[in-house]
Amino acid sequence: MAERNTPIYERIAPVPERLWDKGAGLDALLEGAREPFVLRGLVADWPLVAAGREGARAARRYLLDHARDRAFKVSIGPPGHDGRLFYDADMAMNFRVGTGKLGDIFAGLDKAEELGDIRTVYLASIDIPSHFDGLDEANRIDLGARDLLKSIWIGTRTRIAAHNDFPDNLACCAVGRRRFTLFPPHQFSNLYLGPIDNTPAGRVVSMVDFDAPDLAAHPRFVDALAAAQTVELEPGDAIFIPSMWWHHVEGLEDFNVLVNYWWRRSPAWLGQPQDALHHAILAIRDLPDADKAIWRVMFDHYVFDNGAHVTDHIPEPARGILAPLTPESAGRLRAFLLRMLSR
């Protein structure tokens, strides 16, 4: 990792010991949180964490005991791969993606350990309920009434380029160690983002190699580092990553397991902002500058400002989608957009 010019910050949540067991303390910390923080030992009592303390093979046996008989998606690096799941020189992916039974994948890891030939193997964002039976119930965390997406990340030493996610994220280090480097949302221009439509895992990523940054090509990365917060998580630790915060993630051991929980602050029936960005690129970006300036003001009026001045002059029953959206009006708007996009 590149040397930083600022102290490394770690936010320890100020809660009484084990208060989060009842859910109330953790729920209160997460409600409305817009800054990252670390919870040491949050999931230290998980059986998965206990298995990992016995060793990598014990952790894999524990996971296999809960795995469903189905295919798992896995990313595999070629010989000599350095764990950085990224682009190659031609902007294709520098790893291949396949599927296999978890037992077969783990058998390959066992053999590689015996031969001392650990290659990059990464099972990313595996949905826990659909791929494991009883794993979530045995390794539980109370996140209240949130509608959760529960995922597990399993792999060897890896480096995942800085990216962000729309949902909030509570990431729990279960096996091995992980290093997180976080940047506030506004630092995106200093991270030198890559293509939107060709990404390693569906989210745009920083093109900077954090282990060997090319500051001649990426001079503003120095400013990003000045705003960075970095922490290493031990087994049982967790980190809260707010929506839209950029995070670079490294698996630091030969075998690492992370469990994370995503949830939206907005209803699931609302659209994805990323889709709106794609549509704006299609419809607005390449207009003449004078036209773009008009549309910028229109977006401010209808989307970003969106005050009473937008609708007060319209009879309330006639405001349509200018009124606060409901599941029904959002569904009608989505159907309208689908019709327009399919013309």
UniProtKB/TrEMBL annotation:
Pfam family, one: Cupin_8
Stretches assigned to the JmjC domain: 110-278
Cross-referenced InterPro entries: Cupin_8, JmjC_dom, RmlC-like_jellyroll
Protein name: Cupin
Annotated organism of origin: Sphingopyxis macrogoltabida (Sphingomonas macrogoltabidus)
